[in-house]
Amino acid sequence: MTASTQSHDMLQIAAAAADAKGGEDLVALDVSAPLPLVDIFLLVTGRSERNVAAIADEIEDKLLEAGHKRLRREGRQESRWVLIDFGDLVVHVFHEQERVYYGLERLWKDCPIVPINLPASAATED
């Protein structure tokens, strides 16, 4: 089984939102084969608790604006690892240290990587 078109659309919205708030090292994994209820994990790194919170809030806001329903959110108060579950897409926004410590890429290394298409950043244009 592979991730649905809707999951890919959700991923692009979430990735653009994360990028807009300074999210780094975005990696999307197709976990639809081992996990029957989830299609994609999006992993994002923030540089501080404030940045992690801002990234998570922006992702949640943009997906809600697009009409997607949030099932649950965890970790927002500490903002070291915020998990936002939108059903087909589960977003993990990590502080740098938590991302290294928990190593979700290692745990899900057998899952294919899903390409993320981010718009060209205005900061790179001269």
From TrEMBL:
Q: Which InterPro entries does UniProt cross-reference here?
A: Iojap/RsfS/C7orf30 (IPR004394), NT_sf (IPR043519)
SUPFAM superfamilies according to UniProt: Nucleotidyltransferase
* Localization per Swiss-Prot or TrEMBL: Cytoplasm
Q: Which family does it belong to?
A: Belongs to the Iojap/RsfS family.
Q: Subunit structure of this entry?
A: Interacts with ribosomal protein uL14 (rplN).
> Main role?
Functions as a ribosomal silencing factor. Interacts with ribosomal protein uL14 (rplN), blocking formation of intersubunit bridge B8. Prevents association of the 30S and 50S ribosomal subunits and the formation of functional ribosomes, thus repressing translation.
Annotated protein name in UniProt? Ribosomal silencing factor RsfS
**Species of origin:** Microbacterium salsuginis
